[in-house]
Specification:
Length: about 575
């Protein structure tokens, strides 16, 4: 069964190569849009196709694209992509992942320097040939060098959202096998880390059930690394390694604790056990040769005098002391969220209409949804100027009359300009319920200038939420230089809020910054930055990040009912 991200990757690659080749921009955009739509569908597309579902129901997916998606789903290949690969080297698509290298520049590198791979690019940089190309220069060459190093370092790490798609399908596949009782994906995935290196899967089953053999027949498996009765390991087509362990029920809790980690947390727990004359390992908790606990994780923690510690906290960053002292946080849950405060529509760079976004929010049971399309400075996203924003405000007012079960908040994702001014004048900002203020340009400012830029923006009385505060994009763009501790303190002092952006390639704030915000008394908003109605479902990734940062319901402003939220925003 092909995973959605595999199919989406095929169309993204096709779009990359066609754009490098100089194909019609509308054609390129169609394939790029198909990839985005596929990435946002929560159901498995291959299963939908087998059930005879019509994919052309999705925006931008016509009959021709739906047929191509079916071809990729069923065969794993796309004839059109194979045809384009004969003209444009496939590896050039990978090079476009480097920050600062769009298709035009990749085409120039390919045609002028015969660069066909990452190795070719690395060699050309070392020889100083890239800077000699028109439109590049030494500064761009250094940017590309850093981006290449970042891409190399990220290889072998999978975004949590991509890992989740595999994990969910694998859990379902194994759970449906006769005789299988429990299936859990452990490791850094269970701790909701931003990226994972591999997946550790634990299974309990009836004696004699050939789980290992069935595991290696999981459709995405490309290579069987090992196979046995209790341990098996495979590598998937995506490159992700998955390790399976079949454990007895009596040891399940101990194994789950051990393989969830982190290593530092496990060592700390084992030391507590040693102090009590206990040995704790993946098989159980032992006093001498006698097993005294291990069937559940609760038993493992209780054996050393601790309450259950949630997986997201197990990093040996104070959770054991907090558990001992009764100070563990009551972590926020997805069901605590009453609305989303950062969402885009087709008015700027979103892919769903205002009506579709509101309907999707209603289906999630939200009390409110903030529409925050880009402001005018983000021209690439067709940002709204004053006139278009006023038109949107009027459209929201008209739509609001149709609903009494949800409040549509009028907002904008307002650019923070280089000098700290906001991108829209105060008289229009005054008409809004909410602003998400973000940095989208001049990432290369010094730490001092970037920090002052943001603090100066926070002084504007219409500033509400700092969007994706560090500007990072996982595996692609480093955070800009900024004194985040000063920013968090500045937000707390001014009564401003910080965003935990739930987009899986952002997850910004980081977990440690969330914890610092909590310590400083700065409140956060967990928002999806959704660019489609399906994007609202990505909230769970932001929740995982917030839980890793020890955040509770009261730390998050969009857990408030509408009246409480408006009071916070207006104050």
């Amino acid at each position: 069964m092909r995973e959605n991200r595999e199919i989406a990757h095929t169309f993204d690659t096709l779009a990359d190569l066609l754009e490098i080749e100089g194909a019609n921009p509308f054609r390129v955009r169609a394939y790029r849009n198909a990839a985005r739509v596929l990435d946002g569908i929560s159901q498995n597309v291959a299963s939908m196709i087998r059930e005879g579902r019509d994919l052309s129901q999705y925006p931008g997916i016509g009959k021709d694209l739906a047929e191509k998606i079916r071809t990729v789903s069923e065969t794993g290949t796309l004839p059109l992509l194979e045809e384009v690969e004969k003209r444009v080297p496939l590896a050039l698509s990978q090079i476009t992942q480097i920050e600062g290298l769009g298709p035009r520049r990749v085409k120039a590198l390919h045609e002028s320097l015969q660069i066909n791979s990452l190795d070719d690019l690395e060699k050309a940089i070392e020889q100083g040939r890239v800077r000699e190309l028109p439109g590049f220069g030494a500064r761009t060459e250094e940017l590309i060098r850093n981006g290449l190093a970042r891409l190399r370092a990220s290889q072998g790490r999978t975004l949590i959202a991509d890992a989740e798609e595999t994990a969910v399908h694998l859990e379902q596949y194994l759970s449906e096998l006769e005789g299988v009782k429990q299936v859990t994906v452990a490791g850094s995935y269970r701790r909701r880390r931003e990226t994972v290196g591999d997946l550790d899967v634990l299974v309990t089953c009836r004696r004699g059930v050939p789980v290992g053999k069935q595991f290696t027949r999981f459709e995405p498996v490309e290579t069987i690394l090992s196979q046995g009765e209790t341990r098996s390991s495979v590598r998937l087509r995506s490159g992700l390694q998955v390790d399976l362990r079949v454990v007895p029920e009596i040891s399940y809790g101990a194994a789950l604790h051990y393989f969830t980690g982190s290593k530092a947390h496990n060592i700390a727990i084992r030391k507590l056990g040693v102090a009590r004359g206990l040995k704790i390992n993946e098989y159980g908790v032992f006093r001498g040769d006698r097993r005294i606990a291990g069937r559940t994780e609760k038993e493992v923690f209780a054996s050393v005098g601790l309450p259950f510690i949630e997986p997201e906290l197990r990093e040996d960053r104070g959770e054991i002391e907090a558990a001992r002292n009764g100070g563990l946080p009551n972590l926020i849950r997805t069901q605590d969220i009453r609305g989303d405060l950062h969402a885009h529509t087709t008015a700027s760079d979103g892919r769903s209409s205002l009506e579709s976004m509101v309907q999707a929010a209603r289906e999630r049971g939200y009390e409110y949804l903030a529409i925050t399309d880009h402001s005018q400075a983000v021209t690439v996203a067709r940002g709204l100027d004053v006139e278009r924003l006023r038109q949107q405000i009027q459209a929201i007012d008209r739509l609001q009359r149709q609903y009494d079960d949800i409040r549509i908040l009028k907002g904008s994702e307002v650019d923070i300009l280089e000098d700290g001014r906001l991108d829209l004048p105060d008289d229009i900002l005054r008409e809004l319920d909410i602003t998400v203020c973000s940095v989208h340009s001049r990432f290369n400012l010094s730490e001092a200038k970037q920090t002052e830029r943001i603090l100066r923006a926070m002084d504007n009385p219409h500033f509400r939420i700092l969007g994706h505060p560090s500007g990072r994009i996982l595996n692609k763009r480093d955070p800009y230089q900024v004194d985040l501790a000063r920013i968090i303190a500045g937000a707390a002092e001014r009564g401003r809020f910080l965003e935990v952006n739930a987009q899986p390639d952002r997850l910004d704030l980081t977990d440690t910054a969330c914890r610092l915000a909590k310590a400083q008394g700065a409140k956060v908003a967990i928002s999806t930055d959704a660019h489609s109605d399906m994007g609202l479902a990505k909230l769970r990734f932001g929740i995982g990040q917030a839980r890793r940062g020890w955040l509770e319901r009261d730390d998050v402003i969009n857990t408030r009912p509408l009246a409480g939220l408006l009071k916070l925003l207006q104050s």
